[in-house]
Write a structure and sequence with these properties.
Layout (H helix, E strand, L loop, with lengths): L3 E5 L8 H9 L3 H8 L4 H22 L8 E3 L5 E3 L11 E7 L2 E7 L3 E8 L8 H7 L6 H7 L5 H22 L10 E4 L11 E8 L2 E2 L3 E9 L2 E8 L27 E3 L1 H4 L11 H8 L12
Parallel strand pairs: 1-12
Antiparallel strand pairs: 1-5, 2-3, 4-5, 6-11, 7-8, 8-9, 8-10, 10-11
Helix pairs in contact: 1-8, 2-3, 5-6
Length: about 300
């Protein structure tokens, strides 16, 4: 098995009745119920895309029929597979994220994986300096110097969300969730600016002040406004012959880091098999909702 990186741009997805009903048929009943409780269609589409991506990757990679894939969540909310995995892939694992306009998934045969996607956007109802001030306790002094180094506020925001993405990917990989002190992590960037569909893998992490060579990170941009970070942990015992560069934390390898492949809806459900009966009331409830929350203009 090779590394898997997939994305779906739900922000541009305007599901028809048939698409939404088919999607709802192709997930587990508890997932369908949870998605149906979202107030806004954007959140429902994001969650639906994430569940479909999960089932697709598990089904396609492990050759388990789509309708026989059984998923559950840890008490921290991290999805995991209940099915027995093949003996040759005992450490197969995956992670999903959705934010902005994308849902993404990363899956690995051996390395522990976490993924996060963030949309770079102007802060709501405040300016950039004030926004940074409210977030000052989330980043170290070194990280803030890196974030504020670009000359324009937009480039500073890109650096901010890139750092946030890295920290979230690490936390999701270890499966802790809320409560982890983000100041325990300090990221050192070598690549100054990410490129669209270009994967950088030379960022290092320091945990509690010490460089951790068991972790490396893959970063890219899905488009001009969305950055993605994939955290990868080598769970095997460290070895002097592991060809790692201690200055960057990256594996010295000739392999090209995988890129995210953006699927359309047809590709997303190409191997799907329905688990549930069609439920027209589910579509009617979805169709009555609005896309997202729109703040009232108080000026």
């Amino acid at each position: 098995m090779e590394s898997v990186r997939l994305a779906f741009k739900f922000g541009c997805w305007k599901p028809s009745r048939s698409e939404w009903l088919l999607a709802a048929q192709c997930i587990q009943s508890e997932e369908k119920e949870r998605i149906g409780k979202f107030v806004f269609t954007k959140d429902g589409k994001a969650a639906m895309a994430g569940r479909l991506l999960l089932r697709k990757v598990v089904s396609d990679t492990l050759q388990i029929p789509w309708n026989e894939v059984k998923l559950a969540r840890t008490d921290k909310g991290k999805p995991f597979l209940l099915n027995t995995v093949p003996k040759h892939l005992p450490n197969f694992n995956f992670n999903v994220s959705h934010q902005g306009d994308y849902s993404v998934i990363a899956a690995e045969p051996a390395l522990q994986v976490g993924v996060d996607v963030m949309k770079v956007e102007q802060p709501n109802r405040t300016n950039v300096p004030d926004f940074f001030h409210t977030m000052r306790k989330q980043f170290t002094e070194h990280e803030w110097k890196t974030i504020k180094r670009p000359r324009t506020e937009w480039k500073q925001l890109e650096m901010f969300y890139r750092h946030w993405c890295l920290k979230e990917s690490y936390i999701k990989a270890i499966g802790i969730g809320l409560g982890y002190d983000l100041l325990r992590l300090e990221f050192h960037l070598q690549t100054e600016e990410l490129g669209v569909n270009v994967t950088s893998h030379d960022t290092a992490v320091y945990v509690d002040g010490a460089f951790d060579h068991n972790w490396h990170f893959q970063e890219t941009k899905l488009d001009d406004k969305h950055c993605v970070a994939v955290a990868l942990q080598n769970t095997l015992s460290p070895c002097k012959d592991n060809h790692q560069d201690a200055s960057t934390g990256s594996d010295i390898t000739e392999d090209t880091p995988p890129q995210f492949r953006v699927l359309d809806f047809t590709q997303l459900i190409s191997t799907a098999k329905p688990l549930l009966e069609e439920d027209d009331a589910y579509w009617q409830a979805f169709d009555k909702k609005i896309e997202r929350y729109i703040p009232k203009d108080t000026t």
